[in-house]
Amino acid sequence: MVFSLTLVTAVLTGIFSVHIAQRLFFPYFWKDLFFFLKVMRWGVRLEFYKRTSKIVTVIDRFVQQAQRIPDKAFLIYEGCTYTYREIEERSNRIARALKCHSPVKRGDTVALLMSNEPDFLCVWFGLNKLGCAVAFLNTNIKSRSLLHCFNSCGAKILVVGEDLLDPLKDVLPNLQEDNISVLAMKQEVSYPGVNCLSDKLEQVSCEPMPAELRVPTSIKDTTLYIFTSGTTGLPKAAVVTHLQSLKGSSGFYIYGGTAEDVIYTPLPLYHSAASLIGIGGTIELGATCVLKKKFSASQFWNDCRKYNVTIFQYIGELCRYLCNQPKTENEKNHKVHMAVGNGLRQDIWKEFHSRFGRIRMCELYGSTEGNLCFMNYIGKIGAVGRSSFFYKLLFKYDLVKYDMAKDEPVRNEHGFCQQVDKGEMGLLLCRINSQSPFFGYAGSKQLTEKKLIRDVFKKGDIYFNTGDLMAEDQENFISFKDRVGDTFRWKGENVATTEVAEVLGLLDFIQEVNVYGVEVPGHEGRAGMAAFIIKPDCVFDGKKMFEIVMAHLPAYARPLFIRIQESMEMTGTFKQLKFCLVKSGFNPATISDLLYYLDYTEKCYLPLTDSIYTSIVSGQRKL
C-alpha cells in the first residue's frame, strides 16, 4: 500500500515537473503541435491527390458544398443574399452560354476583368467548369500593361464586367487587332466587335456541367494566373496551380474557422488574398462570405454588425484606416473574433486592440507565386509567423546576409551565402523541392529565373528568392523588416519601379530616372519617389509630368515626390543605387536637391517646402 502511494506520488510529481519545465522552456509546445497536426492533415490530403488520380479541386469543393448545403447563404453583396445553389446554377448558365455562344473551349486561358461582384465568382467558376484557366486582371491597370497581360498568359478571350467596359474603350481596337474576343456581362453593348454574354444566360439550362470537363490531369495543372508586380517593370502572370489554390483555401480552417463563421472580404478579388484565401477558404468551411465592392472605413463596422460578421480579411493599411476613423461609443459592439491578413504594424495592432476589442489578429506571410508561408497562430504582436521545430521538419528556408548597398546577397570566399544569426535581419530564401515547388510565371523563362538563387549553400541547390528581409528571434517568431530590389508596396499594392520609370521616360525633359519608395510616418509601406537628371537646356515641367502619370499609372504607382539631381550613383556594373536615396527620404531640410510633391488640387508637381513637408508627416495633408 505504501509502495503504491509512493509510486503514484512519484508519477504525479514527475508529470507536474514535466509540465512546469514545458511551460518554462517550451511555452508554445502544445500550440505548435496542434497547428502542426492541422497542417499535416491538410498536407496528407494534398499528397494523396499528388499520388493518385483522385484530385478534388476548389471548384469541386464548391460543387460538393452546393449539393450538401444548397440553401445556405454563400455570398452577401450589397444587401442581397446568394445561396450556394444560386451561385452554382448561375455559374452553370455562364459555362453553357460560353460553350454555346463563344469561342471558349477546354484548355483555353480566359482573362477576367471585373470588379468585386457576384458575377466575378460565377464567371470564374463557370470557366473552371469548362476546364479553362482564368487570368485575373487588376482593374487599376492602364492600356499598355493590359495588353502586356494578354501576351504574357496567352489569353485570347476577355470577359469584362458591366462597369468596366466604358473605361476599356480606348484599348478595344488594340485588343481586336490582336484577335482577342471581348465578351461583356451586359444585356446590350454599343461597341463594335464586343459581344454580350448576359443576354444569353436565359437561353441555356442551369443544369450541372459534365464533371469530366473540369477534371485536371495533375494537381499541378494551372487553374489561375494572378498578376503581380516585379522587377521586369510590367505585371507578371504568376502561375497558380490547383495545388496552390488548395493550399490557399486552407487558411481559415487552419486558424480555426468553422462553417458558422461569416467572413467579410473588402479586398479586391483579383488578388490572391481575397480569391484564394477568402473565397476558397469560405468554400472549404461551407461558411458565408460578405463581399464588399470596395473597402469603406466609415461603413466597415456597421457592415460587421449588420451581417453578424465573425472574421474579416485585412491588409495593414486597412486597419490603419479604421484606427483613423473618429471614435464612437459602440466600437466594440460587434461579433468579430478573428481577422486574417498581412502587413499589420505593431503600433496599429496595439491601437486596433485598444479601440475595437481583443480580436485575434492572424498575420500570415506569403506571396502568390511563392513556395513558403508563415502563419502567426500564436498571435504575438509584430510577428508575421512562427517557425517551430515541427515547421522546420517540413519547410526548408534560410535567412542569409544581404548587402543593401550592392543590392545582393553576401557570398563568402567559396561563393556561398551566409546565414544570419538569431535576431539579425537577412534575405529570406526558401529551398525548391517536391514539398515546396515553385511554378514561376507565364511567358518568358527569364522572369522565373530571376526569382531563383542557385548554389546558395552548395553546388546545385536552388532557392526561391522572396525579395524580403526578415528576422527570426530567439523564440522562433518571424518578423518582416523590409523589401529589397525593384518593388515596394503602397496602398496595399506592389509597385514595380521599372514600370514607373518607363512611363516617366515618356517625358522629354528627363535624361535619367531612378524610382524608389520612401517611408512616410503614419503610413504602411513606402510612397513612390523619383530622382531625375534633367536633360541639358531643359527644365522640369510639373504640369506635363502630372498629365503623364495620371494618364499612364494607377493611383498607387504615381510618384508622390520628385528629387532633381545632377548625377546618379551607380554600381560597378552600372546598376542604379537606391539605398542612399531611400535612406535620405524626402525632407527638404536635409536634402540640398530640389524637391517637388504631387498636388492633385493644382494638378501639378509643386515645390516641396518645409511647411508642406511638416503637414505631410503630421498627417494634416493627406497622401
From TrEMBL:
Q: Give the enzyme class.
A: ligase
How is this protein situated with respect to the membrane? Multi-pass membrane protein
Q: Where is the AMP-binding enzyme C-terminal domain?
A: 499-575
**What's a single GO MF annotation on this record?**
long-chain fatty acid transmembrane transporter activity
Q: Which GO terms describe its cellular component?
A: endoplasmic reticulum membrane; plasma membrane
Q: Which domain of life is it from?
A: Eukaryota
Q: What is this protein called?
A: long-chain-fatty-acid--CoA ligase
